[in-house]
């Protein structure tokens, strides 16, 4: 039987022999099919392409075609709103991304420095998801509330980040990574 390719670059192969039949491997069983950890992986009935659907309580945020699911916050304090990491920085690694300075932290040695775009928006809280450290919500804000330093215990990969902010801007950037001393 021929090799079947789907839109998300995974392969399903069914091989036959006189002695045995090997089952089709389910690409959703390997790394959730490449879907976000808060998404369910399934297959499109007509193309067999992977479909990522955010789980209940989560919503998809625009990240350049990749399904990124963040937890829905039903009530925000008056004057605040959600802001999201610029999708350019999804997949950044520490070490590996642009190095810079960071404050000393008891929360881990590997720092991630996030900065709001614009000058009139401050970060109230942050939620970052990493490949190894999972969800991190603690932050250090220096030199001002437009900056947030988040720390992981080991080198890691940034999967997503969102923040509650006070002000008009709804996007923030990863400025640099660092090692806390």
Task: Give an overview in words.
By secondary structure, the chain is mostly beta strands. 0% of the residues lie in helices and 44% in strands. It is built from no helices and 16 strands. Strands 9, 10, 11, 12, 13, 14, 15 and 16 form an 8-stranded mixed β-sheet that branches. Strands 1-2 form a two-stranded antiparallel sheet. Strand 12 and strand 13 form a beta hairpin.
Question: Which descriptors apply to this entry?
Answer:
single chain; 181 residues; mainly beta; 2 domains; eight-stranded mixed beta sheet; two-stranded antiparallel sheet
What's the story with the biggest beta sheet?
8 strands, mixed
DSSP E strands, number:
16
Q: Spans of 5+ residues with little confidence (pLDDT < 50)? A: 1-23
Write down the secondary-structure element order.
EEEEEEEEEEEEEEEE
Oligomer: single chain
Gross morphology is: globular
Total count of domains:
2
Enumerate how many helices there are, as a single number: 0
Protein name: EGF-like domain-containing protein
